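Good morning C.,

I know you're traveling, so I'll keep this short. The sequence:
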Amino acid sequence: YTVTFTDGQGNTLKVQPNIPSGGSATAPATPTRPGYTFAGWDRGYTNVTQNITVNARWTLNPAPPVIPPVVTTPVVLTPTPVPTVPPAPGFTVIFTDGDGNELDRQTVPSGSDAIPPADPTRAGYVFNDWDNDYTNVTSDVTVNATWVPRTFTVTFTDGGGNIINTQTIPYGGSAVAPGAPTRGGYTFNGWDSDYTNVTGDITVGPLWTIVDPGPPLEPGLNTDYWSLFDLICTVLAVLLAVVALFRPLVNSRSEEDARKRQQRQQAKGGGNADGEYTYRKPRLWSILLGVIVGILLIFLFIWTQDMRLPIDFFDEWSWLFFIGLLAGAIFTILAIKKADDELDDEQQAGTAGAGTAAGKQGQAGAAA
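The tokens, ready to paste straight into the viewer:
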């Protein structure tokens, strides 16, 4: 069977054919109609046993209420007069930055305190204090900021961690560079940082240019420095050699000592009638060894040291120079002691000879 749905105004909404006997149709979507409300269908569409038409039913919507227009009456407000309050008596406190620029202005009751503004800032300076009292104000007052120049530290180094010079420089000032540092095998080529218009702490180091140091004195002997200790040992060894060489030759002979030695020599049968004194020289081996040590240390110093390099106190050759100095000292002491022993032996021999001669002269006198 066929079921036809209409809007109740003759307009077909849906046609559903081929519904089996006893079957049900499916209603279309709820229709709409201006001014009306859908109120359902005018008949059932289930258990269909014949062709049927199903119409929509409608309910008239009620008319909206009529709202009369609202008439507004303007309201005139009359302002209430505000009483004038006379200003409280007070004084003006002006804070400035010290250069004429106003930082804050306050009206302070008589006898009260002003409140200072936040500490001002100024390039190259540190805020110090205000120059006037702003407490217990009894008159107009201007308070100015005072400043302390900011300073910075400029440190010059040799590039190896050693400080050459330290300077305290005011903001915007310039440091004065020290004398150019030196470094073996390098040429000073200026400073690595600008030290003018200083605005902070800085460290300035040297710039170096490598130069050709030239060939070493001897392969394997060239070092990074020369030794002051080796030089001292060499000089002392040479002085000891000079003492060993000349000490026996000037063995403190005064004129009186020479005369007494001559008398003793004549008493022993030595010398001659003209007063010639025969000097007995000590052994030469200790003198020669002391001189040889001094000469060897001179050649060793020339061979191992390069005084064009930076100076240091010790090096790998210092032990050898010390042994040479010790040997030179021993040989010099032996030379001096040998000369003094010769003198003592000679004095003892002269005294014994003089006694024997005097005894013989006494015996001859007695016999006469």
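Safe travels,
E.
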